[in-house]
Design a protein that fits this description.
Layout lengths: L4 E3 L1 H10 L3 E5 L3 H6 L5 E3 L2 H10 L5 E5 L3 H13 L4 E5 L2 H24 L2
Parallel strand pairs: 1-5, 2-3, 2-4, 4-5
């Protein structure tokens, strides 16, 4: 039974903005993570996974993204199976998350330019 939720990158961004108890988990391999990641993201390795499952309150919102949407959905289900009440997989994985961040950063730059010319 699937207890996690599929969410869009936009929904994930709203969740990160409004919730105090939320974690963004990047499950891409170490090389991809080191080449670029969201500064709020925790790299999900075997070590961090064990620590998260052992020490994280089950009320924390867990947002998972990775290279492959299916893998992040499996990991979101894993967290749900371990009792995390709010477990999410980003539709489109890291590529969708990265594209959303780029659009968001572009909109912020435009707003700053407009404000500077006012």
């Amino acid at each position: 039974m699937s207890n996690f939720k599929h969410i869009s990158a936009e929904q994930a961004a709203r969740l990160l903005a409004r919730e105090e108890t939320v974690m963004l988990l990047d499950m891409r391999d170490a090389r991809a993570y080191c080449q670029g990641h969201d500064p709020r993201a925790i790299h999900l390795s075997d070590t961090t996974l064990r620590s998260l499952v052992k020490y994280t309150p089950r009320t924390v919102h867990m947002i998972v993204c990775g290279d492959e949407e299916g893998a992040s959905a499996e990991m979101a289900q894993f967290f749900s199976d371990y009792g995390f009440a709010n477990s999410y997989s980003i539709d489109g994985g890291y590529p969708a998350w990265s594209a959303h961040r780029q659009r968001q950063n572009g909109a912020q730059r435009v707003a700053l330019r407009l404000a500077a010319h006012s």
